[in-house]
Amino acid sequence: MFLWRALSGALAVSVCLQAHGMNSALQCSLCQNDLESISHVLFNCWPAREVWEIANIPLPSHGFTDSTNDNLAFLLKVMSNDSVSLSIRMAIPWILWGIWKHRNEVLYAGKQGDLNALVVHAIEEAELWNKLKETQPQPPLGTGLNARRETRWVKPPINFLKCNLHVSWLNESHMCGGAWMVRNHQGDAVFHAREMFLPASNRIAAELRGILWVLHSLSDLHLDNIEIWSDCHAAIDAIIDLSNWPRYHSFLDKIHRLISSFGKIVFKVSSTKANAIARAIAASVTSDGRGQSYLASGGPAWLFSRIEEEKRR
Ligand SMILES: [Zn+2]
């Protein structure tokens, strides 16, 4: 994120502030020697020069230029250069960020940070981050994303239950409607439930809330060996690879805590067609205003013929 901001000219240095019409002295406040551009702060001002020297990585033969793009392109090459120690080249993004934070601390907090400590800290942060990425547990949540999408509903394997779930989300100010239905390997509905939820900021947040609700219900009912099918691809992706979805980490943490109480649970992506019954029940909340929540055994009577039809296939 930080590198992207640096490349996009989205850091609050004088040159960028002036370009956006803000009245700001162009001179670098740290050295009073040059224009305060992004490239100057990250590569050419005295703290930056000192940091790059301490880091002891190969630098461009004629020094860094005035172009942030060129300088970062150079550093990206260093990052894949095997002759440079791995821990230091992996730390390059953190070093850049450290230089930026150091500049802000000097200017706005009156601190005079230790530049050696900055480099050590960058290396530690990078190592920790890489370690966390490596050891990120790959939960045994199955094959949701790779599985071939079912175009129509199919019975689960013997000894497995299949839970179809949907949360109907219209917009960020409208109440959401959630529904799930569990069927056995013969295609018979075992339980189903409907719930009205408070508005959610988007479809993914709504679906994750629905998944949390399903897991609570299934756990209360002591149901296990279960497949959970949602037609919200992103929500299933977030559950399987949570590191990509930091925005939803509080939902995902709760979901994973519940998952660990099940013996066997698998998440899968459904087509909208194969999820049609859960969609119909959920939509009855948002389009027909049926706000009453319930949990019932079997399936809803008004969908009886559709459930029977799916069972016959
Ligand atoms: Zn300077």
Outline:
The chain is an alpha/beta fold and 313 residues long.
Care to describe what's here?
With 313 residues, this protein is an alpha/beta fold. It has two domains: 2-135, no CATH class; 161-312, 2-Layer Sandwich (Nucleotidyltransferase, domain 5). It has 13 helices and six strands. It has a six-stranded mixed beta sheet with strand order 5-4-1-2-3-6, with helices on both faces. A hairpin with a 5-residue loop joins strand 2 (176-183) and strand 3 (189-197). It is elongated and about 80 Å long. The model is unreliable at 143-147 (pLDDT under 50). The protein binds zinc ion.
Largest sheet descriptor? 6 strands, mixed
What is the CATH architecture assignment of the largest domain? 2-Layer Sandwich
The structural domain count equals 2
How many helix segments? 13
Under CATH, the homologous superfamily of the largest domain reads Ribonuclease H-like superfamily/Ribonuclease H
Low-confidence stretches: 143-147
The first-level CATH class name of the largest domain: Alpha Beta
Write down the CATH topology of the largest domain: Nucleotidyltransferase, domain 5
* Structural class computed from helices and strand pairing: alpha/beta
Q: What is the rounded Rg?
A: 27 Å
Oligomer: single chain
Mean pLDDT: 89
